[in-house]
């Protein structure tokens, strides 16, 4: 699927420059020589002991203390030509927010973040910074160790929230324009925040009973506590955003019905649907979950607290999670927390090709997760009750690079072996949700079931209808969805003002 | 929150649930279902829509009180609210002029098949309705069903009725006498399975409304996957209606009872926590 390069808008570039030449920034740069800054060690994120945390669902990372955050902020060289901003899908003014931390102005720093990112305490926790802002950090080029931008983002927004001093920007008088956001996931919430700040009247329609999309059903409590998400949703409500839950767009009402109700612009952010399966024999045996089902049962439906909550989940003593992404890491670490003796990642490529965030892989290793690389299942074997009891696997070796640039795994003939398991979680991605396409015949749908957009504007073929996130990309990250959403919000604002 | 307008026991263990859902009521079609949660700690469960009233803005389902969620539902009353009530979901039943169609229902399916009987009749079909009840006091909605049925059959093992047979035997007898163009069956999995087997020899198209375990009900989780003609389908978005002759019934039976032990644990816990406390 087409990908999008982030380029700084001229406004952002100008703002960046204006910030750089401000007096306080100049003085701060002078106060500590670059050489000294480069010698400072990266502040380690405090975290709970692996052996303690792998038994409960409390958050793993504890967050930087103010003193550590200020030191970490000092490591930022405040470069004349910072690369980090272009590495961020939503174009956060990274040097400014970091220098505000260095100056001890934590709440101001959080406000700076919120100018471009409606959900900073979430991004600070779940973004793959090492392949984005931190990847291109000039300090990384110089010393090999980038500024911990993600940890600082988390710090600033956490401080603001914990001090109860969350800044609510002044909303301009209502424009009278009604906007419908379909799906309360990261993309939808971002568009909602951006457009509410412009004075439009926003309603978010959500199929499930809680807002957040993948942030609530997918990402576990130990990585993103629900109270953090609740605070972000609460912030949006304070901006005047209305939420309508249990509303399945296309089924409860169609886009046309909503148009009749006076909605003028639409954002389709209905996200991932239809989990992908391996398409190998035995896949519908009992004890084989999609990662979506497994995580939804545990996170959204709180199966970890069964029978207090009514939704059960198979506990699993020997659990294999198929896949190497963040969702796979979340699933396998969840299995460990639910008491699995063996919780293993089974991945067909090798460690370096795994798409998961490095931090998640480290955390998983510390928590006692096993990794079986270059391994792929070929069939599942059930017992007399159709419950999975084992899977037959093949060893792989890496061949020539494929279209993704990663070396293609090739099966080693005759390398079959049996792995005993009683729970399997298939975490090999999703296809976009089919409902919006099925119920909106005019909407142009691509060959993967994705909504087709113009990547410069995120506009679909229908007038006033924009889309972003997994419904367009198939299966990506929170921050890419938010990047799409920012572009869409800008274009929707222009459209509503009659200049789009 | 969705307000309950009416919750009443139709017959022992089978209840009617009518809620206020004006938007949904305008869009319901025969064969669709809703996802609901009886309370904040509940499970998300699917219920087939048994009736709706677009003017009044209400939607009704008939359910059997078997597990924790449905037992909880059975204790709710008018004015209570449901934290989740979402839909209408699933593809609507195919309604066309097929000719002569037999609709076979049992337990909650007696209610669930009613909109299909009505729609088929309105589409100009000759409609035979065949209802299975264990005993005469378990029959409900007989008058409504008869209103849209050209013929009405009952299979039962109760001396109250002439018939002392199970539903597939009666279906086979009807087949010997009449030419059917289609059979539609809703009820417990075993009923739908036996109806499909009864029509298989003559190759009469038989549509069943599958009832696997669901979680989100909107095509996101894959809990409801079924094998249809050797291919995996998601009952919530590809169904719930499928060709009964193409369903892997064994798999469905196993998958449906996969949480059996947990269901018992859940019931025991809830009874102890909620009922005894009062």
Judged by helices, strands and strand pairing, the structural class of chain B is alpha/beta
Cα shape of chain A: globular
Distance between the termini of chain B: 25 Å
- Identify the CATH homologous superfamily of the largest domain in chain A: FAD/NAD(P)-binding domain
Shape of chain B: globular
Return the CATH architecture of the largest domain in chain A: 3-Layer(bba) Sandwich
Give average pLDDT of chain B, whole number: 94
Give helix and strand order of chain B, one letter per element, not per position: EEHEEEHEEEHHEHEHEHEEEHEHH
Number of strands of chain A: 16
Q: What spatial order of strands do you see in the largest sheet of chain A? A: 3-2-1-4-16
Name the CATH superfamily assignment of the largest domain in chain B.
Nucleotide-binding domain of ferredoxin-NADP reductase (FNR) module
CATH class of the largest domain in chain B: Alpha Beta
Uncertain residue ranges of chain B: none
Strand order of the largest sheet of chain B: 6-1-2-5-4-3-7
Low-confidence stretches of chain A: 1-5
Tally of DSSP β-strands of chain B: 15
Q: Estimate the helix proportion of chain A, in percent.
A: 25-40%
Tell me the count of domains of chain A. Answer: 3
Strand content of chain B: 25-35%
Mean pLDDT of chain A: 92
């Amino acid at each position: 699927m087409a990908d999008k390069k982030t380029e700084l808008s001229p406004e952002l570039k100008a703002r960046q420059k204006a910030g750089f030449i401000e007096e306080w920034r100049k003085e701060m740069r002078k106060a500590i020589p670059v050489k000294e800054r480069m010698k400072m060690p990266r502040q380690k994120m405090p975290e709970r002991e692996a052996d303690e945390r792998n038994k409960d669902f409390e958050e793993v990372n504890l967050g930087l203390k103010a003193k550590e955050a200020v030191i970490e902020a000092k490591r930022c060289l405040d470069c004349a030509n910072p690369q980090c901003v272009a590495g961020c899908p939503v174009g956060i003014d990274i040097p400014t927010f970091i220098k505000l931390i260095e100056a001890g102005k934590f709440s101001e720093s959080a406000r700076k973040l919120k100018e471009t990112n409606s959900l900073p305490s979430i991004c600070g926790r779940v973004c793959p910074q090492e392949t984005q802002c931190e990847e291109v950090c000039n300090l990384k080029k110089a010393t090999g160790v980038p500024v911990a931008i993600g940890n600082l983002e988390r710090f600033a927004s956490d401080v603001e929230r914990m001090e109860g001093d969350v800044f609510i920007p002044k909303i301009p008088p209502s424009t009278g324009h009604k906007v419908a956001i379909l799906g309360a996931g990261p993309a939808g919430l971002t568009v909602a925040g951006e457009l509410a700040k412009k004075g439009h009247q926003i309603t978010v329609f959500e199929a499930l009973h809680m807002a957040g999309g993948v942030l609530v059903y997918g990402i576990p409590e130990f990585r993103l506590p629900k109270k953090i998400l609740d605070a972000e949703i609460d912030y949006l409500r304070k901006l005047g955003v209305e939420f309508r839950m249990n509303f399945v767009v296309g089924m409860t009402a169609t886009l046309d019905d909503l148009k009749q109700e006076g909605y003028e612009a639409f954002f389709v952010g209905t996200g991932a649907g239809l989990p992908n399966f391996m398409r190998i024999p035995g896949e519908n045996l009992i004890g084989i979950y999609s990662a979506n089902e497994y995580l939804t049962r545990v996170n959204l439906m709180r199966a970890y607290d069964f029978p207090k909550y009514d939704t059960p989940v198979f506990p699993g003593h020997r659990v294999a999670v198929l896949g190497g992404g963040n969702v796979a890491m979340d699933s396998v670490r969840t299995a460990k927390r639910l008491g699995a003796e063996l919780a293993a990642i089974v991945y067909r490529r090798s460690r370096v090709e795994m798409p998961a965030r490095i931090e998640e892989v480290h955390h998983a290793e510390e928590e006692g997760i096993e990794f079986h690389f270059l391994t792929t299942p070929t069939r599942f074997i059930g017992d007399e009750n159709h419950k999975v009891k084992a899977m037959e696997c093949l060893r792989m070796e890496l061949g020539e690079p494929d279209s993704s640039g990663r070396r293609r795994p090739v099966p080693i003939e005759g390398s079959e072996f049996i792995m005993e398991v009683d729970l399997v979680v298939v975490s090999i991605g999703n296809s976009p949700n089919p409902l919006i396409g099925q119920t909106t015949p005019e909407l142009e749908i691509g060959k993967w079931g994705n909504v087709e957009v113009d990547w410069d504007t995120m506009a679909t073929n229908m007038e006033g209808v924009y889309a972003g996130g997994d419904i367009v990309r198939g299966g990506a990250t929170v921050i890419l969805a938010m990047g799409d959403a920012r572009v869409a919000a800008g274009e929707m604002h222009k459209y509503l003002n009659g200049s789009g | 929150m969705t307000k309950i307008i009416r919750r009443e026991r139709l017959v022992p263990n089978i209840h009617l649930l009518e809620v206020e859902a004006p938007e949904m009521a305008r869009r319901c079609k025969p064969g669709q279902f809703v996802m609901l949660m009886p309370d904040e700690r509940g499970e998300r469960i699917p219920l087939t829509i048994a009736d709706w009233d677009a003017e009044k803005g209400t939607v009704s389902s008939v359910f059997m009180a078997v597990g924790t969620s449905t037992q909880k539902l059975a204790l709710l009353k008018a004015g209570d609210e449901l934290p989740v009530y979402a839909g209408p979901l699933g593809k609507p039943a195919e309604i066309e002029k097929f000719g002569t169609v037999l609709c076979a229902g049992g337990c909650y399916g007696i209610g669930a098949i009613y909109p299909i009987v009505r729609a088929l009749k309105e589409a100009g079909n000759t409609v035979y309705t065949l209802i299975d009840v264990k005993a005469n006091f378990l029959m409900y909605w007989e008058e409504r069903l008869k209103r849209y049925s050209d013929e009405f059959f009952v299979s039962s093992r109760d001396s109250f009725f002439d018939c002392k047979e199970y539903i597939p035997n009666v279906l086979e007898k009807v087949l010997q006498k009449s030419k059917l163009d289609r059979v539609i069956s809703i009820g417990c999995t075993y009923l739908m399975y036996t109806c499909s087997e009864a029509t298989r020899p003559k190759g009469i198209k038989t549509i069943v409304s599958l009832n696997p375990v669901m979680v989100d009900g909107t095509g996101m989780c894959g809990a409801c996957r079924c094998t249809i003609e050797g291919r995996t389908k998601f009952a919530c978005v590809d169904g719930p209606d499928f060709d009964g002759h193409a369903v892997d019934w064994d798999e469905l039976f196993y998958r449906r009872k996969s949480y059996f032990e947990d269901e018992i644990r859940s019931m025991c816990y809830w009874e102890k926590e909620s009922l005894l406390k009062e």
